[in-house]
Amino acid sequence: MPGNYDFQLVLLSLAVAIMTSYAALDLASRVSGSGWRPWLWLAGGAAVMGAGIWSMHFIGMLAFSLPIPLGYDLGLTLLSLLIAIVVSGFALAVVRSQVLTAGLLSTGAALLGIGISAMHYTGMAALQMSPPIRYDPVLFVVSVLIAIAASFAALWLAFELRRRDSMLAVLARLGSAGVMGLAITGMHYTGMAAAEFIPGSICLAADAGGVNSDLLAAQIGVAIFGMLSVTVVLSALDGHRAARVEKMAATLLSANEQLQLTALHDPLTGLPNRVLLSDRLMQAQFQADRSGQGFAVMFIDLDHFKAVNDSYGHRVGDDLLRGIAQALGSCIRREDTVSRTGGDEFVAVLNGIKSRADAEAAAGKILAALAQPFQVGPHALKASCSIGISLYPADGVDAPTLMANADAAMYRAKKAGRSGYRLAADTGPVGL
Q1: Considering the entire predicted model, what is its pTM?
Q2: Shortest CA distance to 330 belongs to which of 402, 264, 271?
Q3: Domain containing residue 128
Q4: What is the per-residue pLDDT for 431?
Q5: Domain count, the chain
Q6: How far is 323 from 187, CA to CA, in rounded Å?
């Protein structure tokens, strides 16, 4: 028995297939992660995606007409819808997994493709033709294979695109939706081509008062377009909200990092301040106790720095302090700390100091670095410093004692003529 197609309904089925494919790809990006929101998107996504695929196939069936009245058995029609929703939920659950292995992808595509085919042929059975519809075995198998191939592509694309929210990802979803929509439509019309209606057949569903095909077409068309449109809009709004939340979180993280930087570092030189220095001293003591090695605390005070401020102004003095901070930083190792404690005073904490000779070598390096001229604007300024050194545990077993002994040793270095260093245990002048 020959049949005809309504070209407008064919185009409508293709449009629904593309919209459903886009919605499915977009929904897949919402079902990843943890918490209750992904599961809510999975449940809603399964309903929308299943209804979309189902409506595409039914609109395609409604586009087909025979020279006899047609209707659809309500029970089988609803069963085909349920099959579509279940397999859609399975598809979204598959792409929710953290890793999509080849085995999981292949198994998922096979089950999803068979499920879509079952939905299609259950919908065909809703016609309740007498004699029953016969199917060309070759085209029947081809339609199932097309469904599996389309499912494979859909699952892979949904997994790959689920974590991307950029405009490029949106364009990729649009292109992918077009390909998937054509594949789904191709499966349907291949299945329709496999159907053979025997001349003289009658539709028992139409005679038994089944759902009228024209009414069903109008209802499905309006309902599914509304459902998919609302879903895409809600998904876009959710994506926009998620992007705003992510941006706010990044801003808060940046502000927190800036706050920590301000609270723990000197605003002029960027070196650790007294607060962070106290923490570094505690860490140095812990490491020294664990390794059996000592560490040194150095009080570094610039010589005649007030004269620089008086002669050139505080701006030049600030620039000189920045240059000195960089020079001190170049003299220490990554595991050491140099801190500005205020004015022209600096404190260095040197880890892994095994002997007095190690501390003296480090002090000599600092004195030599600060003895070099500093170019500050048009001025070539010379700086020198006096250094007091205390060693852990010989000169103290806690931070306050070590700091006090290093401070006292620094004043003895100044009294001894400046531009030199003294150890806390020293009684005579030591310097360059």
Answers
A1: 0.48
A2: 271
A3: 4-250
A4: 42
A5: 2
A6: 73
